[in-house]
């Protein structure tokens, strides 16, 4: 494994977990506008800039208190997770006939 092998594997596991456990249609991430390293990572994993939230982290209107909001939709999450097959909804029975979510 190379130096950068860890973060992609972690992101793939998180994406799979999110799809399988929550059946998410989108993931939204808010982070500080000054957190450039994390922002670059989000973009690298398919997140798109959705907007900014002024005064998200404090009362003053400045860059320090401004958050940027990124979004990844289901198609983007599936690409990171490398999942191509159908993921059943919670109401669909599993292949063994059991419901995924108890009634």
Task: Give your account of this protein's structure.
The protein has 103 residues and is of the alpha+beta class. The chain has one domain: Gcn5-related N-acetyltransferase (GNAT) (Aminopeptidase), CATH 3.40.630. The chain contains three helices and three strands, in the order αβαββα. It has helices spanning 6-22, 36-44, 74-81; strands at 26-32, 48-53, 67-73. Strands 1-3-2 form a three-stranded antiparallel sheet.
Quick tags:
103 residues; alpha+beta; Aminopeptidase
Low-confidence stretches: none
Task: Compute the average pLDDT.
Answer: 83
Strand content: 15-25%
- The fourth-level CATH homologous superfamily is Gcn5-related N-acetyltransferase (GNAT)
Shape: elongated
Indicate the CATH class.
Alpha Beta
- Counted beta strands: 3
Distance between the termini: 44 Å
- Helix count equals 3
The CATH topology is given as Aminopeptidase
Major β-sheet strand ordering:
1-3-2
Number of domains: 1
Task: Please give the CATH architecture.
Answer: 3-Layer(aba) Sandwich
Radius of gyration equals 17 Å
In N-to-C order, the SSE pattern is HEHEEH
Structural class: alpha+beta
Helix proportion of residues, in percent?
25-40%
Give the biggest beta sheet. Answer: 3 strands, antiparallel
At a glance:
With 103 residues, the protein is of the alpha+beta class.
Topology, element by element:
Layout: H1 6-22, E1 26-32, H2 36-44, E2 48-53, E3 67-73, H3 74-81
Helix pairs in contact: 1-3
């Amino acid at each position: 494994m190379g130096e950068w092998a860890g973060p992609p594997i972690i992101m793939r596991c998180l994406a799979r977990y999110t799809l399988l456990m929550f059946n998410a249609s989108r993931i939204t991430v808010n982070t500080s506008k000054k957190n450039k390293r994390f922002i670059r990572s989000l973009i690298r994993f398919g997140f798109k800039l959705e907007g900014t939230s002024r005064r998200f982290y404090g009362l003053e209107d400045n860059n320090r208190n401004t958050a940027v909001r990124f979004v990844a939709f289901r198609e983007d999450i599936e690409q990171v997770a490398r999942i191509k097959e159908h993921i059943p909804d919670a109401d669909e029975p599993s292949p063994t006939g059991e419901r995924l979510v108890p009634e």
